[in-house]
Amino acid sequence: MKAHLLLLVLTVWLNVQFGGCALSSSCSHPPSKWCSSLDSAVQCGVLKQCLESNFTRSHQTADQVEVGLYYESLCPGCRGFLTQMLLPTWVLLNDIMSVTLVPYGNAQEKPDGEKYIYECQHGELECLGNMIETCIMNMTDDAYLIIYCMESSADVIKAGESCVNLYSPDLSWDSVMKCVKGDVGNQLMHQNALKTKALNPPHQYVPWVTINGVHTEDLQNKAMNSLFTLVCSMYKGTKPAACGGGQRHYRSYCHNE
Ligand SMILES: *[C@@H]1O[C@H](CO)[C@@H](O)[C@H](O)[C@H]1NC(C)=O
Ligand SMILES: *[C@@H]1O[C@H](CO)[C@@H](O)[C@H](O)[C@H]1NC(C)=O
């Protein structure tokens, strides 16, 4: 038996014996680094999850299911879908799915010299939120967690700085704002506009979901009801353990303080 598999069996056994709780108070790594070494996985209390994830990855053969989300930073339906459906699903199924977030939605752009001026459905603050999230995606691997943190906060924009500090301590807020106010952000937002305008069929509302680049009413409804079930069912390779059989509840991580 491979050492990897043996470790997996051992951890599963330990988890069964000791209730699956792990100490997490000594975790000093940002989430994208949790699985980068055995030590950090242990410190952050996610060893079992990392081993499972590495195991699935090494056995992965089929193409990942591509989930696209066209949204606006302050639209309530978008925030609900992003925080309650997309992120929890991605945490469990990131080995078999890839996510593309395009914050733009029903915004409008007008050329202004070399740059573009943007108008957003929910006002200037929404344009700012879209831009912050776009810049963050361009600057760190931890973008999804930061965006989740912002979108699940009472004030999406105000939460930005503390969410960045929490999930990507190496990324300075000043550099994010430099992107937001500068040419890079402006160009990146133009790319979002082009991607949104290229949708076929054109989007009629937000959040607008594509699966492997395709939008149908059926896929949209299934994604809204249970993205988790949809991704598991669309994945053509061997289903990861997380997909399980039938009903499944989101795994909860426990913390011993
Ligand atoms: C997961 O895989 C990576 C790359 O193969 C490896 O460096 C890391 O140590 C593994 N993590 C765990 C917890 O086994
Ligand atoms: C960030 O944006 C720049 C400028 O558009 C681009 O060249 C670069 O590839 C982007 N990087 C990432 C990680 O998206």
Secondary-structure-based class equals mainly alpha
State the oligomer.
Answer: single chain
Number of helices: 10
Shape: globular
Bound molecules: 2-acetamido-2-deoxy-beta-D-glucopyranose
Mean pLDDT figure: 86
The gist of it:
By secondary structure, the chain is mainly alpha-helical.
What's the structural blueprint in terms of helices and strands?
Layout lengths: L2 H16 L19 H6 L3 H12 L6 E7 L4 H18 L3 E7 L4 E5 L2 E5 L4 H16 L3 H9 L4 H12 L5 H9 L1 H15 L10 E4 L5 H18 L23
Parallel strand pairs: 1-2
Antiparallel strand pairs: 1-5, 3-4
Helix pairs in contact: 1-3, 4-6, 4-10, 5-6, 5-8, 5-9, 6-7, 8-9
One 2-acetamido-2-deoxy-beta-D-glucopyranose binds next to helix 2 and helix 3.
Protein name: Gamma-interferon-inducible lysosomal thiol reductase
Function: Lysosomal thiol reductase that can reduce protein disulfide bonds. Facilitates the complete unfolding of proteins destined for lysosomal degradation. Plays an important role in antigen processing.
Keywords: Disulfide bond, Glycoprotein, Immunity, Lysosome, Oxidoreductase, Redox-active center, Secreted, Signal
Q: Which characteristics define this entry?
A:
two-stranded antiparallel ribbon, binds 2-acetamido-2-deoxy-beta-D-glucopyranose, immunity, 5 strands, 257 residues
Structural write-up:
The chain is mainly alpha-helical and 257 residues long. The chain has helices at 3-18, 38-43, 47-58, 76-93, 124-139, 143-151, 156-167, 173-181, 183-197, 217-234, and strands at residues 65-71, 97-103, 108-112, 115-119, 208-211. A three-stranded mixed sheet has the order 2-1-5, with helices on both faces. The protein has a two-stranded antiparallel ribbon with strand order 3-4. α4 runs antiparallel to α6, α5 (124-139) runs antiparallel to α6 (143-151) and α6 packs antiparallel against α7. Residues 1-23 and 246-257 have low confidence and may be disordered. The site of one 2-acetamido-2-deoxy-beta-D-glucopyranose (NAG) has 4 residues, from α9. Residues 20-60 form the Saposin A-type domain. Dimer; disulfide-linked. Its main location: secreted. Residues 1-22 form the signal peptide.
